[in-house]
């Protein structure tokens, strides 16, 4: 070993021995005070001030950006310094005392470069006849990962090499023989493989004509998510071996944004995903069929019904509708057929002309498929309600309310859900006239109709109570004795509400006809 190499090795050993240790010097044991205040102070500023307090010239490199809050009063400098290096730097810093009272504080790898690096270990002595392989230096760019950790890993895997990180670069400098360099290159090719890039991403907008953009976006997102989860590929092994089926998730995530103002979908994804979304939109964005529902609410007295001899539950001859899905109301029959040589619609109109029945409501509404139409015949009252320490008047709709929800089946029939409600004031407060008791009847029926079929729903009873008082004027108002001079008559009249419904699937001709009637 030459004298120059021996001298460098001695300097290195001496420098490393001094790293991380303060020598026995009285000035390092003097008490110092460091008070940062509530706002704290950067670690770099604290190290600089502490070093200068004992006449050291600090050189600070790559100090972590940490804020300290200290209240260090009259305690030894040595203890403070060691705590700052060991505790607050999280083990990322070390220090070495150099000539002329210069102290270097930096990460360990920086200190190692300043103090000096050992020469690579000489290769083992060649056997007889073998040539000595020269040491060469090569640079390797690191595409991914931590270069410092990769350098440490390489020196463990390939014995005899020296790997260092080029300052400020994602590059490793490796010294070793050609055989060692080939092994390093092979390892780096495996652990720093380039990240595979996915397919190119595109963006398209789809203007919807019939479907709502917000609802369509949810449906498309769920459909694409399900497809991505179930995307599969079959991988065939060698001849005679069993096939293996594996789930391969798509690397690109699709984005679907709905613009409700313009009813437009903004879709971002691969070309394949955009093509699939376009096909789904063609199947979703089409005109929704409509159903024209004619609703007639007729009020007749039960006395009249009994006098006419109309017993709905005994009607025969095919007038009873047999395809009732969910029976909530009674008296359901096909009113388009004759009933005892009479048509029910014509019968009700004749009775109304004679003053024996009354049309409560006769409406014609067109409803989208699977949507709900609403018909109300009545009025709104305000009922007092106590909320906390306040009394509020809450609006309440009373009268006859009918809701219809049609669903067109694949075979052209109509499944009609009918919700009906009859409510009225039953009692009022005699003092202030506020409503105390409300009567309410509710029913829900689901039935299947042919296109254009008419049905009648009955069973809702509306009770009318009349109270009249007759007597001798003046005398009838005398307390206690007044009852001897008056007569009170209470008349309760029960009226039955018949709901006549006709449902028609709307086409262009039907829509035009319905529009002309309006």
From TrEMBL:
Residues in Type II/III secretion system secretin-like domain copies: 350-506
Residue ranges occupied by any NolW-like domain in the UniProt entry: 204-290
GO biological process, one term: protein secretion
Matching Pfam families: Secretin, Secretin_N
GO cellular component, one term: cell outer membrane
Protein localization: Cell outer membrane; Membrane
Similarity-based family: Belongs to the bacterial secretin family.
Keywords, ordered alphabetically: Membrane, Signal, Transport
Name under which the protein is recorded: Type II and III secretion system protein
Superkingdom, taxonomy of origin: Bacteria
InterPro entries per UniProt: Bact_Secretion_Sys_Channel, GspD/PilQ, NolW-like, NolW-like_sf, T2SS/T3SS_dom
Originating species: Oceanithermus profundus (strain DSM 14977 / NBRC 100410 / VKM B-2274 / 506)
Record has DNA-binding as a keyword: no
